[in-house]
Amino acid sequence: EKAVNLKKDLAEMQEWMTQAEEEYLEKDFEYKSPEELENAVEEMKRAKEDVLQKEVRVKILKDNIKMLATKVPSSGQDLVTELNVVLENYQLLCNRIRGKCHTLEEVWSCWIELLQYLDLETAWLNNLEERVQMTGNLPDKLDAVNDALESLESVLRHPADNRTQIRELGQTLIDGGILDDIISEKLEAFNARYEELSHLAVSRQITLEQQLQTMRETDHMLQVLQENLADLDRQLTSYLTDRIDAFQLPQEAQ
What we know:
Elements: H1 2-24, H2 34-71, H3 73-134, H4 142-156, H5 161-175, H6 180-241
């Protein structure tokens, strides 16, 4: 009777494993929204816990069958053979569910990381847009133009590492068919805004550089003119002091 019960327990255990495999490993999942992906991650975590909780039952079953095989070899040997098959299948099921759970957790982590990088780069784009707008109505002063140019250039020196991460993470998920529509839409919007603002910022940078160069050249010309006028003023003052008649001076001094 004990052998019959143990055989029944083995059959139930095998049936449970078959159902678990069909439910957790053979279903085709399509992750088209973050909610679907998150739910799948939580489901696989529960599946892993459920499978691992059966470990105690498997161990008890194993001990009982081995004890029976020791006491009644004729009845227990067939059970030992069946037990080995169940143990092998159970271990395989555990490994596969652990693997799938780990994979889904990695995918979810990849999605969260992508969102974080997009947030960082969006904040940078907002800053860049603000700096570009600030260069629109500058006072016609060299210091103001110079400060605006330096401020814009400091933002443009932003490293490209985050954008590389966005591209690689997005492509990894899209290649796996995971959230591909949502990610494609996000990347398209981000890249379009990045290209537009980058080109506008570089164009404004060139304009400011040219404006600054013109202002510096004008300032230099005014400085030279002022120095020449100062020299002329000193020379004329000396002529007046010495009471020299204008007709005695060179034509330019007259």
